[in-house]
């Protein structure tokens, strides 16, 4: 019995799992396969850095071939891996084969190509091409999945009316406090004024959680409030050249802030360009991410509504934009804070007085009787 497997094919054209040579597959007799089980959906989207895994399992008829082959219609778009497991069944003469395929997009795909779609298939192998083989196929589109969006972590729409109507919402960016639209932004996240802040987001397909957003983002306040700054300078963030900033990016007055700084024109400051781009590294570094680095620092309390965009082009094919609100609160005035030792001291004294009172009462009562 001879068996061989080609598990890795870099160009992703075709993989054959050869069968046992004792299976007699005649030139003119088509192999008889009973069923091809699989978990392949008719359609997939592949975003940046993602991988699709599917399996297909062949159950042949007795003594029949169980070979499966995989392939793609456009090898310049997709790469795939297949691994295979054979198993015998209750019927000794039926040997099943389960292949698992891992599919990724090729690095450095030509972005200007119109269609980023390729078919991937797994089918029963047959030496005679005219045989009709069991087959499963799917279309894989490389690009932004529909309904993909980002959402602030722990977003909630309930129970914040009271919070918003409390008198401490003094400095809102709205003319009137009741202009704040809970249905649009959800409840604002609460932060203390001396707490450096970085918003956290998750990626969703409709309501389905996909992964956390770790990539670089930019923010701008919806109503132009500017009483906040960033905690790091470009130098402290580790920039090798001056980073992009709102001042630099918004100097084209024909574009709104929403259009002026995007994934398309984003440049990282961590890749040193030529020596001529040296300049001032002491300005604020206005790009934030969840894993560290620059944070927001507040200079005035109140309600802020931010727009946020993921600018890192390596994170997703989608333009990920959303809004969120932050309620920045001042700590309660110092006078209200009662020192711990005072509380403990008072409790000790009161317990002592109670004990004495009880003792005297008991003494007195004994004397009475
Ligand atoms: C194929 O499998 C190997 C090891 O299991 C893995 O390192 C590689 O990334 C896989 N390739 C694809 C296209 O999934
Ligand atoms: C085929 O293999 C995959 C991965 O090992 C497994 O998840 C799947 O359940 C198997 N299918 C069948 C029908 O056994
Ligand atoms: C990308 O595709 C376009 C259109 O098909 C073609 O004109 C261009 O030369 C390609 N670029 C590269 C780097 O292959
Ligand atoms: C993939 O898409 C093409 C047309 O875009 C269609 O003809 C084909 O049937 C589709 N394949 C599957 C498996 O849905
Ligand atoms: C409101 O914000 C402004 C600056 O935006 C600040 O000067 C002022 O002190 C703030 N008022 C209160 C009551 O916090
Ligand atoms: C910004 O542009 C995106 C599309 O690029 C759009 O979905 C979003 O609603 C815009 N936001 C604002 C505040 O205009
Ligand atoms: C997050 O930002 C810091 C600098 O503020 C940077 O060093 C780091 O590489 C960034 N992380 C990601 C995932 O881009």
Automatic annotation (TrEMBL):
Keyword Membrane among record annotations: yes
CATSPERD/E C-terminal domain ranges (all copies): 175-359
Compartments where found: Cell projection, Cilium, Flagellum membrane
Signal peptide range in chain numbering: 1-26
Keyword Glycoprotein: yes
Segments crossing the lipid bilayer: 336-362
InterPro entries linked: CATSPERD/E (IPR028751), CATSPERD/E_C (IPR053814)
One family name in Pfam for this protein: CATSPERD-E_C
Upper lineage: Eukaryota, Metazoa, Cnidaria, Anthozoa, Hexacorallia
Gene Ontology, cellular component aspect: CatSper complex
Topology term for the membrane: Single-pass type I membrane protein
Keywords carried by this UniProt record: Cell membrane, Cell projection, Cilium, Disulfide bond, Flagellum, Glycoprotein, Membrane, Signal, Transmembrane, Transmembrane helix
Predominant location category: membrane
Top-rank taxon: Eukaryota
Record-given protein name: CATSPERD/E C-terminal domain-containing protein
Family per record: Belongs to the CATSPERD family.
């Amino acid at each position: 019995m001879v068996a061989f497997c080609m598990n890795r094919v870099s160009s992703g054209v075709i993989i054959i799992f050869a069968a046992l040579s004792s299976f007699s597959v005649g030139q003119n007799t088509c192999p008889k396969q009973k069923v091809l089980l699989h978990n392949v959906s008719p359609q997939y989207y592949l975003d940046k850095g993602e991988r699709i895994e599917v399996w297909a399992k062949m159950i042949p008829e007795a003594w029949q071939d169980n070979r499966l082959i995989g392939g793609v219609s456009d090898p310049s778009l997709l790469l795939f891996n297949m691994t295979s497991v054979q198993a015998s069944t209750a019927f000794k003469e039926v040997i099943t084969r389960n292949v698992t395929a891992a599919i990724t997009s090729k690095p450095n795909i030509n972005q200007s190509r119109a269609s980023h779609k390729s078919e991937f298939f797994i089918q029963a192998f047959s030496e005679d091409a005219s045989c009709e083989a069991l087959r499963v196929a799917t279309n894989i589109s490389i690009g932004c999945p529909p309904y993909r969006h980002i959402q602030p972590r722990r977003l909630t729409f309930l129970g914040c009316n009271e919070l918003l109507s409390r008198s401490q919402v003094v400095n809102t960016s709205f003319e009137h406090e009741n202009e704040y639209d809970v249905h649009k932004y959800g409840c604002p996240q609460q932060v203390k004024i001396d707490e450096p802040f970085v918003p956290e987001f998750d990626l969703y397909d409709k309501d389905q959680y996909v992964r956390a957003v770790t990539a670089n983002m930019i923010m701008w306040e919806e109503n132009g409030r500017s009483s906040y700054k960033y905690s790091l300078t470009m130098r402290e963030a580790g920039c090798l050249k001056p980073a992009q900033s709102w001042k630099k990016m918004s100097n084209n007055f024909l574009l709104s802030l929403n259009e002026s700084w995007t994934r398309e024109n984003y440049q990282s400051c961590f890749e040193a360009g030529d020596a001529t781009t040296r300049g001032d590294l002491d300005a604020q570094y206005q790009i934030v991410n969840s894993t560290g680095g620059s944070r927001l620092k507040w200079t005035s309390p109140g309600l802020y509504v931010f727009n946020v965009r993921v600018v890192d082009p390596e994170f997703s094919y989608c333009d990920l934009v959303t809004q969120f609100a932050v309620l920045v609160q001042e700590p309660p005035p110092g006078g209200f804070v009662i020192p711990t030792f005072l509380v403990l001291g008072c409790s000790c004294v009161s317990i002592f007085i109670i004990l004495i009172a009880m003792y005297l009462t008991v003494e007195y009562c004994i004397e009475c009787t």
